[in-house]
Amino acid sequence: MGDALSRKKENVKSGDFDRARDELFNHIHRCGVLRSTAEQQVEWMEDTVEYMGERYPSLSREQLGELRTMGLRFCRPVIDTVQADGEAEADSTGRTDEAREAAA
């Protein structure tokens, strides 16, 4: 019977971790931290993970550390969206606005 109780408690913690992770990713998208500098992202993540710890008190220090790591990785995507946006602005000759201005 003790096993069932410990598994139930573990599932609650896992559920809280999943909700906190999803909420963190949602905050990342909504607040614009993706366009911040790496230093600003770290500062923002520290504050946000501290908030998550208050919001989800069942999370352990290790789980909060894992959230922080996941969040920082999520903030640094493999494909840089800022660079991709600049590439999308190239005209039919393949030149960006800056290249057209330099050529003029």
Write the layout of secondary structure elements.
Layout lengths: L1 H30 L6 H18 L5 H15 L5 H8 L8 H7 L1
Helix pairs in contact: 1-3, 2-3
How would you describe this protein?
This protein has 104 residues and is mainly α. The protein has one domain (2-78). The protein has 5 helices and no strands. The chain has helices at residues 2-31, 38-55, 61-75, 81-88, 97-103. It starts with a helix and ends with a helix. The relative contact order is 0.12. Residues 5-12 have low confidence and may be disordered.
Largest sheet: none
From the spread of the alpha carbons, the general shape counts as globular
Total strands: the figure is: 0
Continuous helix count = 5
Query: What is the SS-derived class?
Result: mainly alpha
Short key terms for the protein model shown above:
single chain; mainly alpha; 5 helices; 104 residues
Quick overview:
The chain has five helices and no strands.
